[in-house]
Model the fold of this input.
Amino acid sequence: MAYTNIDDSSVHFQIALYTGNGVPLSITNDGNSDLQPDWIWLKSRSVAASHNSYDSSRGTGKHLAPDMTYQEITYYGVTAFNSDGFTISSGNDMNYNGATFAAWQWKANGGTTSTDTTSSITSTVQVNSDAGFSIVTYTGDGTTAGGFGHGLGVAPSVVFVKRRNTAADWCVYHKGMGADYFMKLNTTDAQASGVWQGIAPSSTRVTVYQGGLVNGNGDTYVAYCFAEKQGFSKFGSYKGNSSTDGTFVYLGFKPRWVMIKSTSSGVGWFMHDTKRSTTNVMDDYLRADVSSQEGISSTINIDFLSNGFKLRYGNNTNFSSHNYVYMAF
Done:
């Protein structure tokens, strides 16, 4: 199933806010176009609780936590990927009675997958080529020549890889660091060498290093791959300036969601969006690497502008001595 209206981001990406009620609950998306999500990333805003990741390739009940290392577990938080949203079960950390939540949702291909044999590791892919997004599952072969097909037809700019069968960090490739480095989504660690063998993803393949993080022999993995699409998504880097008149980052569109990480250690993955902060200066934030509830801070804030975003304080996302990478939709 293909979607061609890239001018309407609600076809490919939506943000839902909801309040839990402790019983089975269906969340309906808004926007000009209904969206049946294929990857859902959920987080409690008012309660300290872990992040939650579900996708339609692995299926309902297959839970991973972006801020944690633990393996995939059977946990029926998301029980259905609906034509215009999703359903969550009762009494879990995605549906505490009275708690508030955010759900970021990406469209792939309605749960329809195909086999990709373009690389040494056969993969199963679910692809939305219009939006530059694919969900990939694969089993590692443990070889130094390992690589998996991503199905996008163009080189991805960002890749998240998570081992499913045993505990492991979430490994992030970002073109703003280059293929010599990776970072961990679940930590504040600085960029480190390894994982991608110094080989940037191609139009068909993501090269992965021999070893358990991304290519252990017989280990199972999921990868979320993103390629830039003009007017919809952009992934890049910038240098902070430690000023209240902070760095401006040009995107060519007004963002709805931005995640930022310093490539140095000690600084987390900060997430801002237009659902939780409706006006500038936007000071509501969540962090991908911790279970903490939503924060509001005069020292962690940002403006979303018609053609990009601008940092508004000399801290966390704008230290002058730091380089940063970002994802924007």
Notes: The first helix runs from residue 212 to 215.
